[in-house]
Amino acid sequence: MNTKKRKISILGSTGSIGTQALEVIEKLKDKFEIVALSGGSNIKLLEQQALKFRPKYVCIGNNDDKLELAGIKTLYGNEGLEEICSNKENDIILVAVSGKIGLKPTLKAIENGIDIALANKETLVMAGDIVMQKAKTAGVNIIPVDSEHCAIHQCIKDISKVEKLIITASGGPFLNKTTEDMKNATVTEALAHPRWNMGKKITVDSATLMNKGLEIIEAHHLFNMPYDKIEVVVHPQSIIHSAIEYVDGSVIAQIGLPSMHIPIQYAITYPKRFEGIKSKSFSFSEIARLDFLAPDYKKFPSLELAYNAGKQGGSATTCLNAANEEAVFAFLKNKIRLYDIYTITEKMMATHQIIKNPTLDEIFEIDKETRIKTQELF
Ligand code: NDP
Ligand code: MG
Fold first, then answer.
1. What residues are paired with 234 via a beta bridge?
2. Cα–Cα distance between 288 and 285 in angstroms, integer?
3. Cβ contacts of 77 within 8 Å, gap of 6 or more
4. What is the 64 CA–ligand 2 centroid distance (Å)?
5. Measured in angstroms, how far is the CA atom of residue 335 from the centroid of ligand 1?
6. In what order do the strands lie in the sheet with 230-234?
7. Which of 6, 9, 143, 228 could pair with 267 in a Cys bridge, judged by C-beta atoms 3.0 to 4.6 Å apart?
8. Cα(228)–Cα(233) distance, rounded to whole angstroms?
9. Which ligand 1 atom is the nearest neighbour of the CA of 211?
10. Ligand 1 mean position to 267 CA, how many Å?
């Protein structure tokens, strides 16, 4: 990065990734200028962020809410997010909203030739083929924020010589619990992630291992890697963030103490690297022990469901994403049990008529229809 400040907007600045991104930017304030910040319903936090970082725009989820700040224009809803992503003043946009709302703004940023730091994995699960193709055509970089994909991005020198990707999984809160414990888990138990403090949707996905399934699909699109060359290994300490194996058998892993600051910082400053929010210096002897085990596909059937959806391709992953997201929301509202997230998603997948190469309109239609049909099952 030259001395010119990099202009950045953060979609979802009030969330777990968004707030940590602002901590990174605060440390690197001579390197960044914020164009826009956006929140959903946490107007109070967005206001505090806006007063501190003085963006030109703020965007709030709902126009029933009010946020009036001198010298800062307020935008609303999904249109507001798309307006931010149409503003060519941006050098990079961090897409850190959760769920399906990430897709349209991401497409807008691509249309406008703006690089993207992508945290929102659902975008690639819904429409990875189209998003990656459009980004390639437009010459837009999509830099992963997800820690596993950031790790792989850091390890890869020559993608054509990669034999396989090895994605690590912490195993979530039910790793050492019985299947019965998991099936009947309360919302509080499912949200008690042992390693990461994240938004509720991804935390529930981590408890069912659907998060790892979504990450396999994300990795397939980001690195153009066939599914039989993407492996998952459970690694409870979350020290190895992921690895790649080259054709000659060499394995390169990215290692570090668990912290989302580092991948966020890497993505928004790429291709440069700065000290910024430096994590504590790493000591192998302090860590002493690293464990690895194969995932338990019986206890966590969502992982195989996602693998299969990815292999089927086309609209299968759009359906998977929509059904899972609606089921997670229902679980968070105590309408269904944790295990029902799987059974419901599996049911929706079983009846879905896959379109091999869906258009964007078809993707939005499938997303909408799947959500309606999924909601009928609660
Ligand atoms: P959070 O739930 O913490 O934050 C989500 C953000 O999106 C908040 O700013 C929220 O606003 C905003 N938002 C939610 N709904 C709407 C809406 N309808 N309109 C506008 N804004 C909305 O999620 P995370 O930060 O944990 O995750 C964000 C994304 O990053 C997800 O896709 C997740 O999978 C991915 N990710 C997250 C990781 C993590 O460590 N947290 C790690 C890897 C990937 P508000 O809170 O104001 O309502
Ligand atoms: Mg991850």
1. 169, 293
2. 5
3. 59, 61, 62, 63
4. 34
5. 22
6. 230-234, 162-169, 240-246, 251-255
7. 143
8. 14
9. 34
10. 17
Whether pLDDT at 265 is above 70: yes
Q: Could you write out the DSSP letters of every residue in 51-62?
A: HHH--SEEEES-
Q: How far apart are CA 37 and CA 59, in angstroms?
A: 6
Average pLDDT over residues 187-197: 91
> Where does the pLDDT of residue 278 fall: very low under 50, low under 70, confident under 90, or very high at 90 and above?
confident
**What average pLDDT score do residues 194-199 get?**
88
The pair of three-digit structure tokens given for residue 80, joined into one six-digit string: 């507001």
Helix (H) or strand (E) run with residue 116 in it: strand 115-118
- Tokens representing 37 are 């910040």
**Cβ–Cβ < 8 Å for 7, 33:** yes
In this predicted structure, the answer to whether residue 2 has a pLDDT above a threshold of 70 is no
Residues with a beta carbon under 5 angstroms from ion ligand 2: 146-148
pTM: 0.97
Q: Report the run of H or E that residue 253 belongs to, with start and end.
A: strand 251-255
Stated as kind and residue range, the H or E segment containing 204 is helix 200-208
Find out whether the beta carbon of 39 lies less than 6 Å from any atom of ligand 1. Answer: yes
Query: Strand pairing partners for 143?
Result: 117
The ligand whose atoms approach the alpha carbon of 203 most closely is 1
Q: Whose CA is nearest to atom 14 of ligand 1?
A: 40
Q: What percent of the chain has pLDDT over 90?
A: 95
* DSSP one-letter code for 293: B
What's the CA gap between 163 and 160, in Å, rounded? 8
User: For every residue of 306-370, which 3-state class applies, written as one string?
Assistant: HHHHHHHCCCHHHHHHHHHHHHHHHHHCCCCCHHHHHHHHHHHHHHCCCCCCCCHHHHHHHHHHH
